From TrEMBL:
SUPFAM superfamilies associated with the record: GroES-like (SSF50129)
Signal peptide start and end residues: none
Any Pfam family hit: ADH_N
Entry-linked Gene3D superfamilies: Medium-chain alcohol dehydrogenases, catalytic domain
Species of provenance: Balaenoptera physalus
Lineage top rank: taxon: Eukaryota
GO cellular component terms given for this protein: mitochondrion
Name of protein: Alcohol dehydrogenase-like N-terminal domain-containing protein
Highest classification ranks of the organism: Eukaryota, Metazoa, Chordata, Craniata, Vertebrata
Domain Alcohol dehydrogenase-like N-terminal: 71-148
Amino acid sequence: MGFLKTCVLRRNACTAVCFWRRQVVQKPSVRKISTTSPRSTVMPAWVIDKYGSNEVLRFTQNMMIPMIHYPNEVIIKVHAASINPIDVNMRSGYGATALNMKRDPLHIKIKGEEFPLTLGRDVSGVVMECGLDVRYFKPGDEVSHKPKSLTHTKAASLPYVALTAWSAINKIGGLNDKNCTGK
């Protein structure tokens, strides 16, 4: 991975230009690199352009498909999404400071660059593309290895509810994999 950080890979030429060595290294053309292509495709999405009440919600058919920025990320083609209390609160600005810190830990970007912000954290769909370090998923996998008996709509309604129930059982009830046998 260190080689990729210090080199620029040209996809078509299969050549790596190493600036720190000032040399060109030919790479075999069979190496498969998983990167997102330039933003040329759009998708429909509910977005907000500022924090506020329901009036800030806007539906667009022209939201740019996200790009993989880190090697542990995946791009999902969303078949269904659900809205939960987190999304409603995010619309009002909840978590903005934490999300902006995660997006821009060095405070390089200017304020407001998080917009348009796509809502809908609970999703079900199919993995389209994987970052270089992703090993658990591959393109074509249903997220998150959705049981075949569930529709995408039903699967999208579960994550927040399931994590809330698990948290209550685990944190409040004290049950875990070591002490819940037979319960």
